[in-house]
Amino acid sequence: MVLIETEVHYAASHTAKVCAQKAVVQQPQNARGVFFSIYEGGSLCENLIDGGKRGISIHSTLLEGEQLQIKAAYTLKVPVPFFSGLRFRKKTTVKRRIFSGYVKHWGEYEEAGDNQIVYVAENGVVYHKDSSCSHICLKITGSAAIQEVLHSSKYAACEKCIKKGKNPSALFVTAYGDCYHSTLGCSGLKRTIKAVKLKDVGNMRPCSRCASGR
């Protein structure tokens, strides 16, 4: 269930980013298309989400202050022997400012408050505003690129999420890790990234990619 929630939130976050950049704000069908082009689903989704991948509803809303809100709602089902099973209604909401060509300066990020949550990679020297920033978690697709990682001396297979003999359709790696993963929600992957308050990052500087909204 935790893996499902993590993967749906990841897809919703990227959907908000893409739609905000392209100003796709009042066209729900476009937001759904973007979401399902990112969210791969899979057997876990089919088993634990009521209706499978098709059971996830996506809503996009334009809020005041030029913010786009993406909401993903679905029902988790937990099989229980001899019973009809338990069901939990879940939703994840992501807000993203519509991109207008203006990028905030560092001083304006400070005004947002020292209690905002940022993300730090193990042994990293910068902090990230977005937990899915490609500088801390890179998604690798395409058979040639995947084969290059599989045969690389830098990365080894994660014992938690890589099953022997299986060929994953995508891999996830971090700049400071030494394993490759088949799912974004793998606990082995998450240990390399910490969520901390901005006031606790010390002398770390902001990531040049996600701090500017790229």
From TrEMBL:
Lineage, highest ranks first: Bacteria, Bacillati, Bacillota, Clostridia, Lachnospirales
Natural source organism: Anaerobutyricum soehngenii
Protein name: Uncharacterized protein
Domain of life of the organism encoding this protein: Bacteria
